[in-house]
Amino acid sequence: MAKPAAAPGSTGPETPPDDSLYVSRKLFVRSTSGYFANWRWILVWFTQILYYGLPWLTWNDRQAVLLHLTERKFYIFGWVFWPQDVFYLAILLIISAYALFFFTAIAGRLWCGYACPQTVYTEIFMWLEEKIEGDHNKRRKLDAAPMDGRKFRLRATKYAVWGLVALWTGFTFVAYFSPLEELLQSARSLSFGPWETFWILFYGAFTFAFAGVMREQVCLYMCPYARFQGVMFDPDTLVITYDESRGEPRGTRKKGVDPASVGKGDCIDCGICVQVCPTGIDIRKGLQYECIGCAACVDACDQVMDKMNYPRGLIRYSTENALKKKWGKKDILTHIARPRTLIYGGLLALICLAMVYGLATRSDLRVDIIRDRATLAREVADGAIENVYRLQVINMVEHPRDISLSVSGLDGIRIDGEHVVTLPAATTETVTVQVRVPSDAASPGSHDIFFEVGVTDAGDTTVVRERTTFILPR
What we know:
Elements: H1 35-53, E1 58-59, E2 62-63, E3 65-68, E4 73-76, E5 79-81, H2 86-107, H3 110-115, H4 117-133, H5 136-144, H6 149-175, H7 180-189, H8 194-214, H9 216-222, H10 225-228, E6 239-242, H11 244-247, H12 272-275, H13 296-308, E7 315-318, H14 320-325, H15 329-334, H16 339-360, E8 365-371, E9 378-379, E10 385-395, E11 401-408, E12 414-416, E13 420-423, E14 427-437, E15 445-455, E16 463-472
Helix pairs in contact: 1-4, 2-16, 4-6, 4-8, 6-8
């Protein structure tokens, strides 16, 4: 079987042969500029300012965003989440999934092209590589040259800079799970704990390997999203498309020559759309699973069309139906609202509203009642029957609170001992409570009773009512 021709800007085959599942190749991607490139860099700046900056923000004299594994508490600005709140994480994952389905059905792999960490860090590492080693042609020549002092210096500098970025990325990742102040103190003396050391090096190493070394191989062979994205596409999904009816037959010609006069289409077969592609594909062959929807080829082709004095849009965001039926932008927009997107969008909106409602009505005082199983019931000195309970009370706000305890459900029921307890800020307290009932208050057996736990602080009317059982012996 003949090997496929090498793509411009690459040293290996453009696509793997039919009898191979994996082909190692090295791309020297050409940088580009334009409308979509600007949006990619906006997303790079936004995501990285968010990622690197959040651990440095403070809120109520503590780290604003801290998923504190040791304390088993998640601090997110004014909220404190506990292990009992894990269902919020489940809802967040469901929202993420439906958002992915919704936006993919509308405009293809927007996540992959603009906000995926693999895309973002690859963009950063490629920019650093270009600043150190030069443009795509200089990098190709450097790669082919024998090792000498200049090549060693450039490669060592590049890997050192990549390594620093990767280590800082790993350090920031750990700062979301361990207080930043403690990490900074450990960094000064190089005395990180074992798990902190592991995750800084592990996350840093994977950032270095994925964004710096493997790059498009991660998208082509490791990411599962490319394999099932087709399930979410339909003929009205916006994807990167090459207008074959306008571009073919392709061929070279002088600037400003009317394509019809030389029997050609608008495509001058310059190959720049392939050179700027981060996965090295030729979009002129149609939609391929390797396409991450970054639109680099759109920017590159538009610049070529400008130089040739041809209309832009030979490669553009469009839909299968739009190409077949020659639709304009207005027709494409009117087909965004269709059964698939309406279902995804409706479900996404409902789940988001449910999440917002749940957070808005979330109680900041929680009580769990555990019966003392060592002694289910006992008779005390005054002839009353006593049951013992352990109340685990969670104060979910970041200031101390005084709470009062009361009980109801049976005639003459009362709490023996203290009725008011002080809870420290954002903590769990276990309170042992003895509840007594006159022996003749009810028939022997199990009876429902209710604990009322209320905050006594001025202006705070929070009350939690929990049901449990009281046992009267025979």
